[in-house]
Structure prediction request, 145 residues.
Amino acid sequence: MRQIIIVAAAALIAAVLAIAGAVAFIELSPEESRDAGRVGETRTSAPPAQEPERRAPPEPRPTVTVTEPRNPAPAQPGYSTADANFLALIAADGITAPDDWAIEAGRATCGQDYASAREYLTDGGLYDHHVQVFLDDWMITHGGC
Prediction:
């Protein structure tokens, strides 16, 4: 019984810490400009008379520019743009396969249960750890079956 109480207490503490972390993440989000030093500068009494400090202006924050990817031209005649995007995506994920086999396998495994798709793909030479990535890439680029 004591072990159950200890496990429950540990779970409660973990939940509280997770919530506190989420709140801290939200409060310190980069979408809003917050100055952490602002709280430290508040005073309850008047400061001693002295010349005000001159601070250098803050350095500008770097900006991130997101470039929209271009749709590659179809790799071979008869391939759609979705097929070309699929081939580019699996190549970026480290999957090496002949283009025609990859398209054929994508069409053949789309809509199948995972075990059947896994068997088809691994029999074709795909590594086991690439199966889910291959299936996900097909769904992303083709919007389903």
